[in-house]
Amino acid sequence: MSAALRIGTRASALALWQARHVAALLAAQPAAPVVELVHISTSGDLEREVPLWQVGGRAFFTREIDRALLAGSVDVAVHSLKDLATQLEAGLTLAATLPRADPRDALVSRSGAKLTELPRGARIGTSSLRRRAFLARLRPDAALLELRGNVPTRIERLRRGDYDAIVLAAAGLARLGLEAQVTEYLDAGAFPPAVSQGVIGVCARAEDAATLRWVAPLDDAQARIAVTAERALLRRLEGGCQVPLGALATVREGTLTLEVSVCALDGSRYLSARGQAPAAQGEAAALGTRIAEELIKRGAGELIADERAARAVEEP
């Protein structure tokens, strides 16, 4: 490791907030090294005109940063954990999961109307396959439009009239001081969040003991247990592609609860499952896999396969 601890990050406002937050936590440790931020462009940043669900795989906001980490150009990678593939590149480890912020999605509307109050045919913007599916289920009359760009850009496009409402992660809005923009926090039961939403993940090289020494103390035990269950579920179901799935694991009084929903993109088919296990690291992955297997037996595999086939036909 170099004398300075180099953090690889995207250059968006939210990514920089997260990287600076991690940098501050690292710097607060006794005798900590100097911390530097290294800005890295990802394929997700460059391919702004392509809907996210048409971009291959799930690592389009993390791949280039993780490769810089493997190459030794940076020592630490900071990600929104929901963007990170469930299978890390060989040689990397998820060294820390920070305490979870609000995992819910938030609706921001021009008029101040909540989701149920928006007029028929309201134009709702989102780049997420999951959000599109659950919006279609709750508001089948709405016109669902693609929305790319960083958080401030998305809000600006809403305010200038491109959309009647948009859906964003509550945690991202809070981190950027934009809570006042929120019209409604969407209930996680009816509108389940993305796997790991609200958690910042910190990756490092698996054999880099010098860096791991500084990063390991940032790990939050409850967040680690919750996201282990969620990521195990997604790993079993997704096969490396986006799927219209929402999940939330919670830890209370020693019990881990995992709630999952899978929805067809047009909202016409819907499956949900719930399970519990002791809140222990060794139990979390097993719970996620078990719930995934239950959903597959009930038809989730066919639903996901049908959605992938439909999207393949739609791609230009």
Question: Can I get a quick summary?
Answer:
The protein is built from ten helices and 13 strands.
Write structural notes for this entry.
The structure is a single chain. The chain has 316 residues and is α/β, with parallel strands linked by helices. The chain folds into 3 domains: 1-99 and 199-219, D-Maltodextrin-Binding Protein, domain 2 (3-Layer(aba) Sandwich); 105-185, Periplasmic binding protein-like II (D-Maltodextrin-Binding Protein, domain 2, 3-Layer(aba) Sandwich); 221-316, Double Stranded RNA Binding Domain, CATH 3.30.160.40. Helices cover 35% and strands 22% of the residues. The chain is built from 10 helices and 13 strands. The strands form 3 sheets. A 5-stranded mixed sheet has the order 2-1-3-10-4, with helices on both faces. Strands 7-6-8-5-9 form a 5-stranded mixed sheet, sandwiched between helices. Helix 1 links the parallel strand 1 and strand 2 (35-39). Helix 8 runs parallel beside helix 9 (281-297).
